[in-house]
From TrEMBL:
Coiled-coil blocks: 306-337
Listed name of the protein: non-specific serine/threonine protein kinase
Keyword Secreted: no
Ranges for region Disordered: 374-399
Keywords of the record: ATP-binding, Coiled coil, Kinase, Nucleotide-binding, Serine/threonine-protein kinase, Transferase
Pfam families tied to this protein: Pkinase
Reactions performed catalytically: L-threonyl-[protein] + ATP = O-phospho-L-threonyl-[protein] + ADP + H(+); L-seryl-[protein] + ATP = O-phospho-L-seryl-[protein] + ADP + H(+)
Native source species: Galemys pyrenaicus
Nucleotide-binding is among the record's keywords: yes
E.C. no: 2.7.11.1
């Protein structure tokens, strides 16, 4: 494969990759062209943009976005040789960018099939996923025989055992990249190819050094589960509280960026990431809406009634709590005044107060609980009319009832039936 840098009069730069077709039959060439056209439709800030593809003589040519920062593998080697490590905030930021890109691909049923640090590129210090499976398909590197001449460091156990490749295999490779960013070396190492394969298939799951957050270590270990079905998906990882908090912090930081803080190109890339995250949130809302739309009209009607019943029950509960607080406050005032009256009587018996002072102590009128109960029942009836069309309380509500207790007061209890769909 030969790579050319292309310059345009407008100042725009792109990359032309020229891959020798060689002995590939026409069907394989057509398949590669179709796959390249599919990838050209991907539009995400964490994915290298495919602009065009064509066949020129015995070469398959792909034009892609230009990334001036080279690849992540070069960056890792640069830090390793300098004796430096990546800041924790930088690792988390890059990891989230990769998660967003991988999730974007998987939502569209696209697998990368060759995720590794050499295929992750830097542009304005932001990571972009590139070099999809088209190159592997054209160069015949999808089979294990060809892999023997390369590196298995990012391959999942199921891929090495020829048990298939799916989205969870990309997740495994992404975990290996995360480990490499943290430790500056491969996740699984060995003296030769077979020793590395043996560690991947049968070895223990490595851990991050203790100076890294335990939450990040737990996430990485779950991504390196030997069983593909037990690995989390990209969207599930993004929903983990630790990652979600970091994502929100990242969005706030990007939104506060100004051209004075960063160069203009980086500002644009940051804006693209914010838009991608906002679209992601919007798509999650649409997905929930589609689940409701799959219901039958009867099921949707019952769901609306139950939601209305829950809402009214919440309002009624709040009203009863307010009335109870008011009742309790009035009872405390009553006890306080009765205590004062008792003191007055004791003082009167001892002859310390005159009858004129005694007349100043006014007794409190008794608490009208029937009025309180009537107010709550009227409110319950109003809420029931709103949700059930005046035919009594809605499905999730039960009428208020008086529960007597010791003393001269009573409390109000609210009963609720559990509504099931």
């Amino acid at each position: 494969m030969i790579v050319f840098k292309m310059f345009f009069p407008s100042g725009c730069r792109k990359v032309l990759k020229e891959i020798g077709i060689g002995p590939l039959n026409p069907n394989e060439t057509v398949q590669a062209n179709l796959e390249a056209q599919l990838l050209s439709r991907l539009d995400h800030p964490a994915i290298v943009k495919f602009h065009a593809s064509f066949v020129e003589q015995d070469n398959f040519c792909i034009i892609t976005e230009y990334c001036e920062g080279r690849d992540l593998d070069c960056k890792i080697q640069e830090y390793k040789e300098a004796g430096k490590t990546f800041p924790e905030s930088q690792i988390i930021e890059w990891f989230i960018q990769l998660l967003l890109g991988v999730d974007y691909m998987h939502e569209r049923r696209i697998l990368h099939r060759d995720l590794k640090s050499k295929n992750i590129f830097l542009k304005n210090n932001l990571l972009k996923i590139g070099d999809f499976g088209v190159s592997r398909l054209l160069m015949g590197s999808c089979d294990l025989a060809t892999t023997l001449t390369g590196t298995p460091h990012y391959m999942s156990p199921e891929a090495l055992k020829h048990q298939g490749y799916d989205t969870k295999s990309d997740i495994w490779s992404l975990a290996c990249i995360l480990y490499e960013m943290c430790c500056l070396h491969h996740t699984f190492t060995g003296s030769n190819f077979l020793s590395v394969v043996l560690k991947i298939v049968e070895g223990d799951t490595p851990s991050l050094p203790e100076n890294h957050p335990k939450e990040l270590n737990a996430i990485m270990k779950s991504m390196l589960n030997k069983s593909p079905s037990l690995r989390p998906s990209a969207i599930e990882i993004l929903k983990i509280p630790y990652i979600d908090d970091q994502l929100q912090h990242l969005m706030c930081r990007y939104s506060e960026m100004t051209p004075e803080d960063k160069n203009l190109n980086c500002q644009k890339e940051a804006a693209h990431i914010i838009n991608a995250v906002q679209k992601k949130i919007h798509l999650q809302t649409l997905r929930a809406l589609s689940e409701v739309q799959k219901m039958t009209p009867r099921e949707r009607m019952r769901l609306r009634k139950l939601q209305a019943a829950d809402e009214n029950a919440g309002k009624l509960k709040k009203l009863v709590e307010e009335k109870y607080e008011e009742n309790n406050k009035r009872m405390q005032e009553l006890r306080s005044r009765n205590f004062q009256q008792l003191n007055v009587n004791v003082l009167h018996e001892s002859g310390d107060l005159t009858s004129e002072k005694l007349s100043e102590a006014q007794p409190m009128s008794p608490l009208d609980l029937s009025t309180l109960e009537s107010d709550v029942e009227d409110t319950s009836a109003d809420l029931g009319d709103h949700a059930g069309g005046g035919a009594g309380p809605p499905g999730g509500l039960v009428a208020l009832r008086e529960a007597p207790r010791a003393g001269t007061t009573s409390t109000l209890e609210l009963g609720c039936d559990q509504a099931q769909i």
